[in-house]
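Chapter summary example.
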Amino acid sequence: MIVGIDPGTTVGIAVLDAQGKIISLTSKREAKRGEIIKYVTQFGRPVLIASDVSPMPKTIQRLASSLGCGAYSPITSLTNIEKEKMLKEFQEEIRNSHQKDALAAALKAYRNYHDLFTKIDQKLIKQEKKDIFTDVAKILIKEKTKNITDTIRRVVRKK
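The structure predicted for these 159 residues follows.
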């Protein structure tokens, strides 16, 4: 899963699966980190927590650290025009600006890592080990490692 977060008084949360499909899109007023973690983990284990702004807010870094996953922030903050283009097909699902920002963050991260996810998926299908996708992706993202095959071996040895 990729989770986009728009921190603030009202927190936007967008949860995407590894294929970029929306699992959940919500906003919560005055949500504490524990509440956000509980909400996100009910859908599974995230690989990445994403922000739509640069530099990355400390809130995103802390959440990623608490969840043991990578953190993503674009090189430059996304503009409203970029977000509108990116989210055109999702307008019916977005209820407020917090959800919009969270979904834009998650989609930007997904697009950034799409090729990596596809390669991991293909290698795991060949080896009939799809169940370790999240573990492999987390290591590759957190450690900024490129060798998928070695990472798969590492995860298999640990299990």
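To summarize the output: The longest strand covers residues 22-29.
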